[in-house]
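INTERNAL AUDIT FORM
Audit reference: QA-55
Scope: verify that the stored structure record matches its stored sequence.
Auditor: D.O.
Record contents follow.
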Amino acid sequence: YTPRWAHTDDNHAWVEVWVNGRWYYLGACEPEPELNRGWFTGPAKRAMMVHTTVFGQYRGPEEILQKTDLYTRINQLPLYAPTTRLTVEVRNTRGEVVPGASVEFCLYNYAEFYPVVSQVSDERGQASVITGLGDLLILAYKDNLMAWQKVTAGATDRLVLTLTEPDFSERQVDLDIIPPVARAVESADPAGVEENNRRLKLEDCIRATYESTFINKDIATIFAREKGLPEDLTWKYLEASRGNWPEIIEFLYQLKPEEFSRGLGLLAAVTAKDLRDTPAEVLLHHLRETPARDEKLDESTYLNYVLSPRVGRELLSPWRNYIKEKFSQLEKEEFKKNPEKIASWIQSHIQLDDSNYYQVPLLPQGLLQLGRADVYSMKILFVAIARSLGIPARIDRATGRACYLSDGQWKEVYFGQESDRPESPAKSRLSLKYEPVAGLPRPSYYSHFTLARFSQGKYHTLDYENEPALNSFPCELRVDPGHYLLISGNRQPDGSVLCRLKFFRVVPGKAREVSFTLRTSLQEPEVLGQFLPEAEVYDLKSQSGLKLSTLTANRSFILLLIEPDREPSQHLMGEILALSDQLADWPGLVVAVARDSLPAGFEPARYKALPLAARLVYDIQGHISGRLLQALGKEPAGLPVALACRADGSIIFYSEGYRIGTGEQLVRMLHWLK
């Protein structure tokens, strides 16, 4: 598992196998023809950390990153990438070493500095780790003192950090973050590739045969008409349920006419994954065991925070009946009058137990029977009890705190060792103003920026992903008073990041406005090679052969070479489809399916959301790959490939393999293509 990639956002996990006395890895759910190959082979060569968790007290030769009574986490990075050992020494202002300090080796990813390794300094004040050859931000803190510094692993093997009082002055700091360099990936044996492709096609047929058993729109429409349900909504939820459609149609079949509206509202309130996972009996339980909506409560709040069985990341289960029978009528009345008493009851009757090392949430009923739980499971229980009694409750996404709705305001409750309590319970208004850069009219949370609040010795990222308020700028958030850090980052084509840290304070009871932008490179893109679009291709829409140059027509163009059924290409095409509006006026987009990668029964309609002017072709003879070899002097380390070329064939943008954000980078490149 790599907790975070260095050259792109996101993370990844895969399988290792023990063969003839050593460890190898597999291509995970997308098998390759031989061991130690996967679509992530290239990215793994640029990783800063790869680790795995072993049961028990492991004593192998690998570096131990963490050891507990139940498991040992070991460092597997040397199997994948060039490495170096980095040692951090923590001192105080008198120059004395500081044992017992928390030391975090942080990697820029998703617009935050994520700790890929966390350690505690030893009696010599030291913490060390084997890592890759790239940039890290090292953070150390203890007893309300802290220190941090960017370091390039490989350029230095030792860093000294001196703990001081945190600097809360309002300022901004610019950092250039450089990942490990890209490295070549050896080509696989052609015969093995051919056999592997044959097996993959067989697997595609098996999957397609199973998917053909899913309910279709015609049958769903007939069912909806006979039942008296809205046809469009019925098909929407049945289509989304995929292989779980028998359970969802059973749920709909069991609905009484007076339950139609609330039943469809329940399906709208749960997640897309819940539709694919949840048995009908669980959904019916929550539908029929939830108190009716209070007249003072609006429909949306009722559906999402009372009726919905989804609280956090737990498995959905039927808990309402058990909870209502668990408590006396007097207790339930007291809870309704003052939901804080639910939290008090949990604190008094449930023992805190942090040995849940897999962090799998306990189910509310099981937790009550067991009488012990981790803090997160306690929060889920609080919400479950409140909702069972008709009290709107949730776990706040941004802060992770459990809260309930009272007099139109969300009020927070705390459990166990939660010490992150704001200095004032009152929220303050924070207005964020974005100053646009070319190609990015609106930044996305995590992709381009994050907010973090200081508590317990360091800054903690707030989870504002999918926050509606951030859909436009300027925007306003209700936040706890305190010291904040806004991190913004602009990922470059080579994987490096132009990062900016902005420190500021939000004062209790006062509104605060903060503006930010993304750092940009003012240099014109470098010409990377010369691509001549003379390849013979097959137009998948017109079903005719033609030269690629006919499509580019002596103009600037963007060319994508993809494998439709492989994860990296699916990521890229997802981004391109989402950015279709920004590419709508661009006539030079060509999407080419790589040779031997055209799925059986492939339909161009899979990419129907592409701009109308885009062309979808098949590199039937592999000519595009050959032209890339001529242009760049090397074969691509992995697909997909994305090119941006000027009319004369000059390549000014090139990306290969797995890389989040490539679509956005291509949109920004339009400025240099026009």
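Auditor finding: record pair retrieved intact. Residues 190-211 form the longest helix (22 residues).
Action required: none
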